[in-house]
Write a structure and sequence with these properties.
This protein has about 200 residues and is mostly helical. About 65% of the residues lie in helices and about 5% in strands.
């Protein structure tokens, strides 16, 4: 569970996937990646503002919970091959982490799942399984309350859909004026109106 939630382990793989999408992907892959980047940048700011405004404590900050911590390794993915440390939270964990709601992990992965589902339909929808596993891992690790994860799921879905709708409107307005050849081939950024 700790490995699923640790972004540092997966960074090399994610960078390779993004580069492959940018270099070898067509318009749809590039549009998906750019849209996703914009959604993630905006949702990161909204998440930070909400965390500061709400200030909800994490489970490990208010009660004793079991913690699973990965050992450090270089490069980071080698931590998968080391035995994790399992301990119970104590007073030192009370001030170590930021607020609990909304979950940044769930916000980011829900945004990715929504974007992939809208751009790639059935194939993209498979990412929801990973999003669910990450949400469960955040609860399992004592980082979030179940209500944080579920509420963040709906918050991030709405946030992502709003940003994608704005990007779609911007594309239809700007591309028609400044890139009519591209617009003729791709009249929709997220939604293809010809289908």
């Amino acid at each position: 569970m700790a490995a699923i939630s640790n972004i540092d382990i997966w960074k090399p793989l994610l960078i390779v996937i993004v580069l492959i999408g940018l270099v070898f992907g067509g318009f749809k892959a590039r549009a998906c990646l750019v849209s996703l980047l914009i959604v993630l940048l905006i949702s990161e700011q909204v998440t930070g503002i909400l965390k500061s405004a709400i200030g909800r404590h994490r489970p490990k900050q208010v009660q004793t919970v079991r913690l699973v911590q990965l050992q450090r390794a270089r490069p980071e993915f080698l931590t998968l091959f080391k035995r994790p440390t399992i301990r119970y939270s104590d007073q030192s964990d009370r001030d170590r982490s930021g607020p609990s709601f909304p979950s940044g992990h769930m916000t980011n992965n829900t945004a990715i799942a929504v974007c992939l589902t809208l751009f790639y339909r059935r194939r993209g929808a498979f990412y929801w399984f990973l999003t669910a596993a990450i949400g469960y891992s955040r609860i399992y690790l004592g980082a979030h309350w179940p209500s944080d994860v579920i509420s963040t799921l709906f918050l991030a879905m709405g946030e992502t859909l709003l940003v994608l709708a704005a990007l779609e409107l911007l594309w239809r307005w700007a591309a028609e004026k400044w890139a009519p050849e591209i617009y003729a081939r791709y009249p929709g950024l997220v939604v293809d109106p010809t289908q």
